[in-house]
From TrEMBL:
This is SAM-dependent methyltransferase. SUPFAM superfamilies: S-adenosyl-L-methionine-dependent methyltransferases (SSF53335). One of its GO terms (biological process) is methylation. Transmembrane segments: none annotated.
Length: 269
């Protein structure tokens, strides 16, 4: 018999109002919605939630590493129940007040606070690269998933995100992966039917790349590192990016090693 996720307290009508929403500052560790300067990265993350939310329809879902919470809330629009876990106290407090339909708790992802076989889906988007013990985390995902449940992971493609480097460019990342390494990590934990897709710029973003010296990503990073003002055209293009400007392509249809981000879906043993 499958276990049940323990209830997490939620705000109900008639309860005292929660404290004011804790404000999360932009540090580079997580993306935040509603900021023009962050819009490219936010949309690049949001699109994966949008494209894969259908897998969560009517299911019990754990988001392991929920960050600001926008993704967990998006999934809550179709899922039967969403439990979100994050280690950062400020993020947990923010999610609790801003997204009341998400049940959130603070915990270490290496020791998920859920019973065995208690959820149908585990979502882990743009988080695994932050973890020190990735194998332990994936083993925990296998433990809490019901038989035949799905683990969905997205992560920056090491080949294109930190090209030619042994250590990640982003100081908040501990270990980045390529497609083969991501698949191997999941298979070694006993997951089956592992599929890996890649996220790419679509036609409109490729035109923006051309307008900004070949890469709108590099143009943003250059200004951030130099703490320099953004040209008006760059600021306008970044603010205009939408989820429709990205393409998610299955392995075999295009060289996944050229992708920006990797998206893996695997079935629990």
């Amino acid at each position: 018999m499958s276990a049940t996720v323990p209830d997490v307290p939620r705000h109900s009508p008639g309860d005292p109002l929660p404290p004011a929403d804790p404000v999360l500052t932009l540090t580079g560790e997580r993306t935040i919605p509603d900021l023009d300067v962050e819009n490219y990265w936010f949309r690049r993350h949001q699109v994966v939630y949008q494209r894969l939310a259908g897998h969560c329809a009517g299911r019990e879902v754990l988001e392991a590493g929920c960050g600001e919470g926008y993704g967990a809330d998006l999934i809550a629009g179709v899922a039967r129940r969403v439990v979100a876990v994050d280690y950062d106290e400020a993020a947990v407090a923010h999610v609790r007040t801003r997204y009341p339909r998400v049940e959130v708790m603070r915990a270490n992802l290496a020791e998920l606070p859920l019973p065995d076989a208690s959820v149908d889906i585990v979502v882990n988007f743009q988080v695994i690269e932050h973890l020190w013990d990735q194998a332990q985390f994936v083993a925990e995902c296998a433990r809490v998933l019901r038989r035949g449940g799905q683990l969905m992971v997205s992560t920056p493609n090491r080949i294109t995100f930190s090209p030619g480097r042994d250590t990640p460019i982003n100081p908040f990342h501990t270990r980045e992966l390529n497609a083969a390494e991501l698949a191997e990590l999941l298979v070694d934990a006993g997951f089956r039917d592992v599929s890996v897709s890649g996220l790419f710029h679509g036609p409109r973003l490729r035109k923006m790349d051309a307008r900004h010296g070949g890469s709108i990503i590099d143009a943003q990073i250059e200004r951030a590192l130099a703490d320099a003002p953004w040209p008006a055209e760059l600021a306008a293009d970044v603010a205009a990016v939408t989820c429709d400007d990205f393409e998610m392509v299955q392995s075999g249809c295009r060289d996944i090693d050229d992708s920006l981000d990797l998206i893996a879906i695997a079935v629990a043993p």
